[in-house]
Amino acid sequence: MFKCSGCGHEEAKWLGRCPECGEWNTLIETAASQAADRGGSERFGAAGRLLPQSLPLSAVNPREGGRVSSGIGELDRVLGGGIMKRSAVLVGGEPGIGKSTLLLQAAAAAETKGRILYISGEESAGQVRLRADRLGLAGSSVEKIEMVCTGSLEEIETILNAVKPTLILVDSAQTLFSADAGSTPGTINQMKYCVFELIAWVKEHDAALFLVAHVTKEGLIAGPKALEHMVDTVLYFEQNDKAAGLSGTQEYRFLRAAKNRFGSVDEIGIFTMGERGLQTVEDTSLLFLVRREGELPAGVATAAVLEGTRTILVEIQALTIPAKGAVSRVFSDKIDSARVSRVAAALEKHLGLRLSDQDLYVNVAGGIRITEVGVELALAGALYSARTGLALPADVVIAGELSLTGEIRPVRRLAARIKTARNLGFTGFLGPAPEAAESAAAASVPELKIARDIKSAVKLVYNKER
Known about the structure:
Layout: E1 2-4, E2 10-11, E3 27-29, E4 67-68, H1 73-79, E5 83-84, E6 88-93, H2 99-109, E7 116-120, H3 125-134, H4 140-143, E8 145-148, H5 153-163, E9 167-171, H6 188-204, E10 208-213, H7 226-230, E11 233-239, E12 252-260, E13 268-274, E14 277-280, E15 300-307, E16 310-322, E17 330-331, H8 337-351, E18 358-364, H9 376-388, E19 396-398, E20 401-402, E21 408-409, H10 414-423, E22 428-431, H11 439-443, E23 448-450, H12 454-462
Parallel strand pairs: 6-10, 6-11, 7-8, 7-9, 9-10, 15-19, 17-18, 19-22, 22-23
Antiparallel strand pairs: 1-2, 1-3, 4-5, 11-12, 12-13, 13-14, 15-16, 16-18, 20-21
Helix pairs in contact: 8-9
């Protein structure tokens, strides 16, 4: 057979141009497998392989899908409670953000009795050992880790069959190659073929697989989207900018799930990077609030948002200046710019606040990206404050969804947001009317201001009509 080294397309005869991908001179002669039928037996297929047999779903052992703890609380939170057996996890992020460090720390801390295999295609064994020593990983935590430095799929499969690990960590997917997938390592076909073979192995041997993946300049995992479809979980590492005024000047790492077949994609893991590697941040209550004395400046609002199962308070900052051109622009990377434009349009329509001739700048202190709809009322308050120059009260926390009609819609877990705000010393809370299940908790807050629409919200905050 003649197989294309770019896309894997097969032809019975040589062609100058691949009819699938259109590339020239990519068809390479490969040996066709000689399938032998074993006497027409229904239990055996080509090359004498045992054919899979169906069974009732009720007969499947549910313990086959059990979890093991990674030993890192924030990683377990994002994964949905731990590492699922027979699953594949893809971890992507910018260079130097800590992907290899996370995998090495997870390998040392994983609560599994089986052996752990760390496969490095980018670093030598000595470099990995130096990192382990720098992270303070020693003793029994590293004795269970087996180390191999190769990218050859054939060599990896030989070692897997000999070691029989329960946890496999590959750094990285772009370094894997196989002679059966073409002659050029690093191609899309190579990645898809090698990752598929590794996933098939872990599903047959009750193991779990972690893969590190490079990202493009746009921040997406390099290679085909099919690679993300093949795995069970896709994690992204993000980094904030160092910001004075936030819990020192530490660098924070945010671990998010873009895909998770065994848990929620709303959870977020927060780490700090130090000399001893990644350290989990358990208490995030005051992490994203700027330390100030006195009143808030104009354009600043405190929002209570949900990140998975926990509530965090963040500071929303807004700035409005006359547009430099004929068309106003929105500059916002931590909150979706389309959401900022939608909230600004609602303010202009229902409050008569002219924003169409202004350039809008929106930021979230601490560099965390906010996607939850409960931030919209606080965003509206920050934009209103920035445009009018009237500062919001420093002791009020805001949460709510703003509709295009100007109404304030209910948000999830309002009672948990109120409780977090009270525990941190805030005496006021502005939001929508609580649902019946949360009305008792909301009634315990004497300074709760219930807003039906954006006009009543402004009246409650400033005690006057605007």
